[in-house]
Amino acid sequence: MSTVAIDLTCVRKSYGDKIVVDGLSFAVASGECFGLLGPNGAGKSTIARMVLGMVAPDTGKMTVLGEPVPARARLARARIGVVPQFDNLELDFTVRENLLVFGRYFNMSARQVEAVVPELLEFARLESKADARVAELSGGMKRRLTLARALINDPHLLVMDEPTTGLDPHARHLIWERLRLLLARGKTILLTTHFMEEAERLCDRLCVLEAGRKIAEGEPRALIDEQIGCQVIEIYGGNPHELSSLIRPYARHIEVSGETLFCYAPDPEQVLVQLRGRAGLRLLQRPANLEDVFLRLTGREMER
Amino acid sequence: MREGYAAVMPANAYNWVAVWRRNFLAWRKVALASVLGNLADPMTNLFGLGFGLGIIVGLIDGTSYIAFLAGGMVATSAMTAATFETMYAAFARMRAQRTWEAILCTQLTLGDIVLGELAWAATKAVLAGTAIAVVAATLGYAAWASILYSIPAIAITGFVFASLAMVVVSLAPSYDYFVFYQTLVVTPMVFLCGAVFPVSQMPSAFQRVAGLLPLAHSVDLIRPVMLGLPAGGIGLHIGALCMYAVLPFFLSIALFRRRLMR
Hints:
The complex is a heterodimer of chains A (about 300) and B (about 260).
Chain A: E1 4-15, E2 18-29, E3 33-37, H1 44-51, E4 59-64, E5 67-68, H2 73-77, E6 80-83, H3 95-104, H4 110-123, H5 139-150, E7 157-161, H6 169-184, E8 188-193, H7 196-202, E9 205-210, E10 213-218, H8 220-227, E11 231-236, H9 240-247, E12 253-257, E13 260-265, H10 268-275, E14 282-287, H11 290-298
Parallel strand pairs in A: 3-8, 3-9, 6-7, 7-8
Antiparallel strand pairs in A: 1-2, 1-4, 4-5, 9-10, 11-13, 11-14, 12-13
Chain B: H1 2-8, H2 16-28, H3 31-57, E1 59-60, E2 63-64, H4 65-94, H5 99-104, H6 110-138, H7 144-171, H8 178-192, H9 204-212, H10 214-227, H11 234-260
Helix pairs in contact in B: 2-6, 3-4, 3-6, 4-6, 4-7, 4-10, 6-7, 6-11, 7-10, 7-11, 10-11
């Protein structure tokens, strides 16, 4: 097994005049969790589909698990598990039948599938639901079944397109915990997300995308330190322009986004002193996060 | 580009079986209703036309009208079973149910999926066609052994019409477009191809058109077998049906690639 799981070189894709992926290059090492982070329409899903060989790039070179893609994508997919953006489980089948049918798509015999089903059900915390119809499961359970289904062929690489979108916080945390377990077992994960928190918690490295272009790449902490490197004060209410001139001397950088003023301050106390006593202001002091990085790099907040 | 098309063709000779088995499992859950639904229409035609018109028509080519009609109804029911399974059920699996999308994430290719769907639709055609033949044999309009001999012809009829319908599915933006195929292609074929009356009754121009249509070749294969008559031009009929099965199959894969993998 090569140590590079995914290798993209100068990949471009456009639909008519619209460029969706614009000269993108990145490499994902075996065993790491690599995130594609960006707003809706940044090209994340297209890239995930390209990696699976479902979309052919206009130009550029792609290698996935040592196979040239899309030409030999089928052989790569034999060792990939996919969690798609929208559930596509068999609603009329039971949980067990879903796993059986999916195992057959990998040429697994009924006996081979039965051998792994108990472990997968335990992993997905669906032991008590083995014979329930999928239509009866909650959203979080369906997502966990989709995750278990993706593991049926014991894949080396998992491709996950927005795995927790649409889940409530409890269900989301459960998925995150399961994903960390998979990483501990040595799986490689390619994850697309627009949740900064998800990217920060799970990803070893990530690539920030905007309009199909890479605008930053690196470890989440390193990106935050590099781009921001200090505390953030969010200020709501008041006139952003008046306020920004007031605190500018004490701020490294100021961004205005809508009605919110983001003040990046090496010494937050100084800024707070300036604002003390002003009526109608709400202040929030917090450590910098990826949201700030995105705002800094693009001049706008991430659309959700 | 050529490499791109090669990558979506069936990967091997057995991958399609997994798709067939998925459809079989889904069908097993609703089998009774499905069988009744598939049989009601051709049965109504067979008895309604057979007994009703049979009184007026008398003998055709030396056999009773209902015996003549039985062969035509076997071919027609195979055609409609395969057509409808593909147009409605396979289209739903491609679109609303996202079944194909899930399968495309595995080591199966688009070609494997299409082949599995065709094999499944042909299976349903065999069920529907054979059931009519069994009824005909029970009533004494066909020899029991003839059912066995007609099954291969019924199966290939199923493949042909599944394959043709697959092209329609690959092009249709929504269910609404299937009506055109049904009313402009499928239904006229029943009357043009000798299913309900002999082709020789039509003007010669129509007879030439009928010679090009797949259902005519199916009827010409199945009817003589069921009536225990010698059949002519078997090689030509089988060759024509194979063309109608294979060419649309590859065409539909190419069209699906453009539709689903862009």
